[in-house]
Amino acid sequence: MRLLLVFGILLTGKCRYMLFDIDVIIVAAFLIATLVIGLGHGGDVKTIKDYALGGRNFSTGALVATVVATWISGSGFAITISRTYYDGLYYLVATFGMMISFLITAFYFVPRMGEFLGKTSIADAMGDLYGKKVREISAISGIIASAGHIAVQFKVLGDIVSYFTDSNSTLTIIVAGIAVTAYSAYGGIKSVTFTDVLQFFTFCFAIPLIGMMIWNKLYLVDSFNMSHALQIDKFNYEKVLDLKNHRFWEMIPILIYFSLPGMKPSLFQRISMGKNLAQIKKVFIISAFLIIFVKIAIAWIPFLVFNANPNIEQGQLFGYIVDNYTYTGLKGVFVICVIAMSMSTADTEINISSVLFANDACSGFQISPDKRLLLSKIFALGLGIISTFVALSTADLLDIILSTASFYMPIVSTPFMLTVFGFRSTGKSVLIGMGGGFITVVAWKAMGIQANPIAIAMLVNLIFLMGSHYLLGQTGGWVGIKDRSFLEKQKDENIRKRREIFEKLKTFNFFDFCKKYAVASNITYVGLGIYFVFYTITTMYSIEATLLQGRGQIIFAIYQIMMVTGTAMAMYPIWPVSIKSSLKELIIQTWWPIAIFYMLILFSTFFVLVNKENHLQFVIFAINMIIAIIVLGWRTASIFIATGVYLSVQFYKYYMGIDYIDISIGSPQFVLMYILMLIGTVTIIFLKPQQEHQKQTEHRVGELSDEVGTLVTVVSSRDSQIITLDTKVSG
Fold first, then answer.
1. Per the count of CB atoms within 10 A, which of 193, 316, 328, 691 is most buried?
2. Which residues contact 92 (CB under 8 A, 6 or more apart)?
3. More confident residue, 489 or 567
4. How many Å apart are CA 188 and CA 348, to the nearest integer?
5. Are 312 and 320 in contact (CB under 8 A)?
């Protein structure tokens, strides 16, 4: 159904901006893939719990993808693009509160939420603790908050798609809203999660690609200058973060809002879906950094566009980007990027809202499990229609989100956060606190105060809840966390790690450290030595002749060190026989990591900085970094690389006689930073897990060897006892 409706939007009517066949194919392929994945994973939903939690057997990667895809919404994309272009870094700095919120959730909330794993919804959890009324109010508040997010996703989706067609924007929003709603109501959270994975990879590919295309045109055609761009007041971080700047203080309320762990219904659902708390903690930590990375990548687009044209009027920004920086093929990518972000959030919010309604808001009615599941799907359709009309009512996306969130966080988030940290009260006190938060929001809006009331209303809820609890003599109080198993395990693990680090530092021996990373075969030493020789010769022939003038003797000295290192290591098997084998092993084992440090990292970084126009050095540098990571392991290599790059930069500044280095786009320093980030990403995704698995395997093998040794000792002891008894019997 969704596929047919979207095709109707794209293919009917006269196109205002012609979508060529390749763009239609890209959008159609994405929608077909989404439809196939959604339908393929949504057929085994039997109960409302399946519809909400999907069996709780998702991988960490799938949970990270669905958390990030839900958070990086189409509305978030549109707001970040618009606010960064017109307001500069102020909004982007405020969005760092999202990372703070996720890290607070990961380190302080998740470890204390063991008792809530497997709960169908946050309203279900609140109802179990504080009664049916609290459950119903929590459900209604959650539905209102989710409806706001759904509405803005429909609006963004409709606005972007209607830009490429001749259809009316209102009609497009309605049709797109019905299409997404119909799909979301079918499959449950399992269908939503696996489509989120596709949508996550879609916008993670599309956003950097769009930014790269804009930068390429701007840098090569318009001679873009990063230094000048960063001097613009709203993009100058020193002025943006200046405490005397009144706009800095205007940014603080949004920063606080983003930093508050509001425990939205959809995020609680993601926590409840996890296999265990360790997995969920890891998911939120990874998601925190991925979210801010995506936000920066999005903000990069309007930053570049502003430097190309700072006079674009409100409402014309997206049109300008599409008209000037996209072409056939890339337009289709741009469309599916926005569709992916909008759908991933709308799907989730529709799913959790329908669960809140059928499972919690209607908990007072005697409804069979089968009918409860059917009711959730019917409500999903109704909510989608209502949200579509809300999307037509206003143009301020951020205002919709903040307005609907103000009827959730001040009502539900405060008592739930207290519950997580071990404070329990009665339903009466919780209802009083909820009432205080709700009245504060209503009064705030009635008085026409411009600032958002969320933080103040949450504080009022806290005061009313705590005050009524103690003044009315309610049972409970700071009774502690019900399930402390993960906290205790985490505490023991931290103590063990600290002891392990202390013991390693206490017993550290440089020669033992070098021996640890030594190789067993002489061929490896020879091979690396030969590589050093070829690396040196390549560098000598690729260096610019002008660099050998003036301070050329320094580079000549480096050449000599490099050539001697490579030759000596390559000839290790035929070192003089007069040197004892034990001494030769000690020398090569000690020299091995040191040579890797100065050859592959220190000198390699220096020649990248010196050889500004020679791209071969960048390739060699990347190869050298990967070799170092493979040989030394990612932990040791990370320390070596950070230290080596820093020392090399300082040496380069001394060599060139400068106080700072140029990091503008296109400079060797910029490319160096980019390569380091790329290598870091490759290390985290591919090399780190493999090396961690190998280390765990070796550790397990060691434990098994110890167990076998213990068993052998026991068996030997028993044999001795049997022999002794046999001797006594024979005697």
1. 193
2. 80, 83, 84, 295, 296, 299
3. 567
4. 9
5. yes
pLDDT greater at residue 539 or residue 717: 539
| 165-177 residue pLDDT tens | 555 556 656 666 6
**What is the pLDDT at residue 562?**
92
Q: pTM value?
A: 0.76
- pLDDT in the model for residue 666: 53
**pLDDT surpassing 50 at residue 726:** yes
345 with 35: CB under 8 angstroms?
no
And the tokens for 463? 């005061």
Phi and psi, residue 451, nearest 5°: -65, 150
Indicate the fold that domain 2-6+19-39+51-409 takes in CATH.
Sodium/glucose cotransporter (1.20.1730)
Domain ranges of the chain: 2-6+19-39+51-409, 510-689
Phi/psi at 603 (5° precision): -70, -40
Q: In Å, what is the CA distance from 3 to each residue of 182, 183, 349, 382, 398?
A: 11, 10, 21, 20, 29
Hey, what are 83's tokens? 């606010």
Q: How far apart are CA 82 and CA 299, in angstroms?
A: 9
Q: Give the closest residue to 396 by CA, choosing from 121, 691, 82.
A: 82
Which of 14-23, 147-156, 455-464, 665-674 shows the lowest per-residue confidence on average (mean pLDDT)? 14-23
